[in-house]
Predict the 3D structure of the following.
Amino acid sequence: MQEKLDLLTKLRQQVEAGGGQKRIDKQHASGKKTSRERINELYDPGSFREIDVFAATTDDFNKVNGEGVTCGYGTIAGRRVYIFSQDFTVIGGSLGRVHAAKICKVLDMAMKVGAPVIGICDSGGARIQEGVDALDGYGQIFFRNTIASGVIPQISVIMGPCAGGAVYSPALTDFILMVANTSQMFITGPLVIKATTGEDVSMEALGGAATHNQVSGVAHFLANNEDECITQIKTLLSYLPSNNLDEPPTFAPVEPSLDKETLVSVVPTDPNKGYDVRNVINAIVDGGSFFEVHQYYATNGVVGFARINGQAIGIIANQPRILAGCLDINVSDKIARHIRFCDCFNIPILTFMDVPGFLPGVQQEYGGIIRHGAKMLYAYSEATTPKITIITRKAYGGAYLAMCGSALRADEVYAWPTAEIAVMGPEGAVNVINRKEIAEASNPVEERKKLVQQYRDRFANPYIASARGFIQDVIDPRDTRDRVINALKNLANKRESRPRKKHGNIPC
Ligand code: HXC
């Protein structure tokens, strides 16, 4: 027996040694940890159980090396989470048949038991020596990512290269986290781009964390190093249920980090002035709980998670400080995606509306603002999770609907006294409906001013919409937190269904 135990120990150590000390040192020298070090940092001490430890492409078990990926499950903050973590020290973490089979098993098991799955990517892509088996392996993973979507949360963590078609597994998951300077994602690398288009671009500029967080919107979170990234993963998980039938964890309620009195003056009296909507959010949600998603992308909108009275919620808000909070192509995609994530997992959505409209412009029209903006309408209409909307100021035109006005089945809509709900802003409106009067006036400037004021007095307030029943109540901004807490209690057992169908066809 002892002999057999010794062999087991030797083989296990061999797998755990990955590609050997030299390659581990190289990994460390480049600012990266090994697959196992990452897992150890992420999981509750002693909770991780590796699976398929001895899976191999060869029957010669003396050559086992983990196949370039470490897989298993354990607990993070006491909750079960599955993981696959690619091991760059073994054949560059490249994906062959067995490597893919290990990942597929993790996805299958996570779905079976209803646990989130984390994929840490650090790989040279398809294992070239394995040819079509490697390609099929990716296909098997893509299929499972798609089937698992909306069943269990899937989190992709890029901690090294992720190139070629390999990027589509993370892209099919719910969230992508990237680490500055050590992670890259691209379909074709700098050399191929140079050869085909003549463009000169570095790996980092092409597919680094900053690029995908700010420019492409492919990534949702940016960390300065791997430790920070691990903390972000843990924070993100704290808002998520384990699966679509479960509830997110609850926490002890915390008073907001900003005094509610700030809400009285947060909206400037000058309608053309912006403000930071984060100050509204932080005066309403539990202190320190607001966790922004896509923080650096499409910053004219703010999305994320927070807790209110200890309960996890999704946040969606216009950001009046940037582009006056207008809805453009990128922010429409960002918001629609977040709505759909929250709805998949029945996380209530709290929307803050201060929106002058969709962003005008030829580039926006050419870029398809019509189909991109439609995604928001579609996502809010489709969502049956509790939806609460707070109108803080402007609610104009189609954007009023797109930010979850009552027509899209918001369950509760509240307006602050500063709310202005109309087809368009006063300046634009008088240009259309009073053009003749202004042109014929002895003093067109004064006439225009007078008409703008008349329009503002008549339409730019929350009371006409309230009279029609489009708004539940006009509230003192300081009461917003209490109103939202009450609304969430009220909606706790909400049941709403849509007609049965194979699936809808969201504009894209
Ligand atoms: C087999 C690979 C490999 C691969 C790296 N290695 N990528 N082995 N298949 N795809 C091996 C190397 O031979 C080396 O082995 C070890 O991993 C580390 O690689 P290095 O090149 O020494 O590391 P580094 O200098 O850090 O460069 C990393 C890299 C580079 C930029 C990722 O390795 C690289 O360009 N690899 C190829 C990338 C690629 O073109 N992949 C295919 C993409 S297409 P030794 O023994 O020396 O340590 C694709 C299609 C998917 O993935 C389609 C899905 C639908």
